[in-house]
From TrEMBL:
Alphabetized GO MF terms: heme binding; indoleamine 2,3-dioxygenase activity; metal ion binding
Pfam families linked: IDO
Species assigned in the record: Lobosporangium transversale
One CC-aspect GO term: cytoplasm
Protein name: Indoleamine 2,3-dioxygenase subfamily
Family from the record: Belongs to the indoleamine 2,3-dioxygenase family.
Lineage: Eukaryota, Fungi, Fungi incertae sedis, Mucoromycota, Mortierellomycotina
Length: 463
């Protein structure tokens, strides 16, 4: 028998993700295109929608809980489309968080069966936890003022807010606008990755330039937060509604949240936070921006190379298809290795001008992500750190946090001592995010790791 001496076939590289296969749009990114469903029209679901219609009135009158307690227990099996499922999930998330946090100092420790059971069921279908997430609060909670108009921030509006304030509307649509403008960079970046496989240097650079135009918009959009969202309104009225049931003892929820009629005991879920957006994790994967645990170093200096556990945890709160997109993207990302390979040839290559242009545009894209994270730190400083040092404005006593001193007395004493020590050492005291994280070290570390990814910082800083 003659041995087979033919060359084995070349191993096929994994295809790049197709955006639409993961509920991602080449036009609006992770935000639904053309826009989310604003209402469930089936008569069966009108008990939910009718309460949502009166949400702000019922919260202000302290009647929301009694209305929800009397809701019928509805099945989610009649929801026929993904848009309907997303609307149901969004609706139940907002009703649940309004139920828990919307009665002043009286924080509900459980939610009733007519709300908890369908909420868990629709969450299972969508592969996302039953808690207010970035997806339900932002991605699936917007509309166009003029359905025929542009997808810019002036034409965006929320479907519903929990406080009924213009400040909450602006807070939400700034995030949506970031998603839309930044999301339009995804397809050019995937096209750049395809050109990498073909070693088509000019085409890689051309696609990076298109992506750069979009990336240059996102930090400017985030900075518009200051225009119409008052920091005091955000911190004292809006922020508590975003809180989850994990690490929330200081907000009056020490033992998690009980879902009546759902097995498994009290739930401990992270609340809604922009860290649950899939947009910037996508950029991190594409540009090779790595994030590591900082071992508690508030200056952001990493002492180890363990992947950042909080960022990994936040993925669990993204919609299932978006998580799958990130996993696929991580397996095929090739841009940074390609740019590094070309950079090694910069001095000796006849294509040095093209290589330098490639590196400059790669760095310029990374720099825009770094600038966005700079702005995010400024937003957190103004809207959370500064407000945390102050008490609520006069007449806003209902929005204070009521802590059970019997449970929290020793913990509070320890936190106070730690904060005093940090102030003596010139550090900001630790401030907890709605997701339960220690905000400022986390954000600063992400920003610094982004900046460290640039290859020619003195050049890219001028872009």
């Amino acid at each position: 028998m003659v041995a087979d001496t033919t060359t084995p076939p070349t191993q096929q590289l994994e295809e790049f993700p197709i955006l639409e296969n993961y509920d991602v749009s080449s036009f609006t990114g992770f935000a639904p295109y053309p826009y989310p469903l604003a209402r469930l029209t089936q008569p069966y679901y009108q008990p939910w929608e009718e309460i949502m219609d009166q949400l702000n009135i019922l919260i202000d009158a302290r009647l929301l809980r009694s209305a929800i307690d009397q809701m019928p227990l509805l099945e989610v099996t009649r929801l026929e489309t993904k848009r309907e499922q997303q609307r149901a999930y969004t609706l139940l998330c907002i009703l649940a968080h309004s139920y828990v946090w919307g009665s002043g100092l009286d924080i509900a420790q459980s939610i009733p069966e007519p709300l908890a059971v369908p909420w868990q069921a629709i969450s299972d279908i969508l592969d996302i936890p039953p808690v207010l997430t970035y997806a339900s609060n932002d991605l699936w909670n917007w509309k166009l003022k003029d359905p025929q108009g542009p997808y810019d921030i002036e034409n965006l509006d929320t479907i519903v807010t929990m406080t009924g304030t213009a400040d909450e509307t602006w807070f939400d649509i700034v995030s949506v606008s970031v998603e839309v403008e930044g999301g339009a960079a995804l397809q050019p970046l995937l096209d750049a990755m395809q050109a990498v496989r073909e070693d088509d240097l000019p085409t890689v650079t051309a696609h990076l330039k298109v992506a750069l135009l979009q990336l240059s918009k996102v930090g400017k959009i985030l900075a518009r937060m200051f225009e119409k969202c008052d920091p005091a309104v955000f911190y004292w009225k809006i922020r508590k509604f975003l809180a989850g049931s994990e690490n929330m003892a200081t907000l009056g929820l020490p033992n998690g949240l009980e879902y009546k009629g759902v097995s498994g005991g009290p739930k401990h879920h992270m609340g809604a936070t922009a860290g649950q957006s899939s947009l910037f994790p996508s950029f991190d994967l594409i540009f090779g921006i790595d994030h590591y645990d900082s071992n508690g170093n508030s200056a952001g200096a990493n002492t180890g190379k363990a992947p950042n556990t909080l960022l990994a945890k936040m993925r669990a709160y993204m919609p299932g298809p978006h998580r799958a997109f990130l996993s696929h993207l991580g397996r095929v990302a090739n841009l940074r290795d390609y740019v590094l390979t070309k950079k090694a040839l910069l001095e000796d290559s006849e294509h040095s001008v093209q290589i330098k242009e490639l590196i400059e545009n790669y760095d310029a894209c990374v720099h825009q992500i770094k600038l966005f994270r700079d702005t995010h730190i400024q937003v957190v400083t103004r809207y959370i750190l500064t407000q945390a040092r102050r008490g609520p404005p006069e007449g806003w006593e209902d929005y204070r946090v009521k802590v059970d001193t019997n449970v929290e007395e020793k913990k509070a004493e320890g936190i106070k001592a730690s904060q005093d020590q940090q102030k003596d050492e010139g550090h900001e005291p630790a401030i907890q995010g709605t997701g339960g994280s220690d905000l400022m070290p986390f954000l600063k570390t992400n920003r610094d790791e982004t900046n460290a990814t640039k290859l020619l910082p003195t050049i890219s800083a001028n872009k």
